[in-house]
Amino acid sequence: MPERFEVGLPDGVRLHVEATGPADAQVTAILLHGWTLDGRSWHRQVEALTGSSDGAVRVVTYDARGHGRSSCMPLPTATLAQLGDDLLAVLDTVAPTGRVILVGHSMGGMTIMEYAHRHPAHFAARTAGLVFVSTTAEGHTHTVYGLSPRIARLIRLAETTGAGVLARCGSWRAPRALLRALQPSIRWMLFGDRCDPADIRLVTSAVARASLRSIGGFRASIGAQHRLDTLAALAHLPAAALVGDRDRLTPPPCAESIAAVLPATELTVCPGAGHMLMMERPDKVNGALTGVLSRVLAEPASHATPAGTGV
Asked: Origin, by domain of life (predicted)?
C-alpha cells in the first residue's frame, strides 16, 4: 500500500501525495498528471515500477493544486509557473536528497519544463532523467483537435471563453451527472481507437474531482507556454518522449519538436492511440520509463545533491 500524506505550500494549499517504495531508494520517480486529472492516472506505471525495481526506485505521485484530493487555490496561482514552484516544494519535502526522474503527462510535462525554467540550479542538482508523455513545449501551437484549422479556431475561441467563466466558479465541481452525459465527448477528445470502459470511468471521476477554478484557470497559461529553449539546455539527460498519432490535444508535432531539441531522446509514436497513453499504451510508457531508469541507475550517483544546493 502506498504511503499517503500532504505537502503544505506557502500559500496554504495542501497537496495530496502518495509514495511507494523505500525512502532511501537509489532513484525517486516523480509522476505528474495532466490537466483536470489526478495521480490515479499513473496506476499502471506505479504498479509496474514498484513490482520490478527490487527497491531501487521510490515512486511518487501527487495531485496538482485544485485537482484530485489537493485543496483549491487562489485564482492568480492557477498558472504553470506556480506548478513549477509546487514541484520544487514537493521534491524538497518528499525526496530531499538523491537522484530523481521526472515523468510528466500533458500539463505535468509542462510543469517539469517550468520547474527547469524557473529553478535551473535546483533542477540541475536533482534531475537525472526525463520522460514526456503526450505533452508540448509550444502551448497550443499544434492543437487543432484533429479538425480543419478554421473549425479548430472556433473551438479554441469557445474553449477559452468558457474557461474564463469556469475560472470564476471557485472550488465548485462539475456535477457527476453532467460528466456522465459528456462521456462520449471526453472519450473522443482524450482517447484513440480503443478505450477500456474502466479508463473512461477513471478519467470522468478525476474531472469530477477537479475544481471548476482549476479547469478554467489553467487554460490561459497552458496555451501560452513556450519552453523549447529551456529544453535545449537539458540535452545531456537520458530522456524519452511518447505521443499517440490520434492525439487531438498534443499531436505528434509536439513530441517531435521536443525530440528535435533533445537529440538523445527516444521518440515513440503509438499508432491508433490518443492523449491518454499511460492508459491506452501502458506497455509503451512503462518500457520508456524503465529504459530511462536503467540508464540512470547505470550512471554514477553524481546527481545525489542535497536539495537547496545552488538555489
From this structure: Bacteria
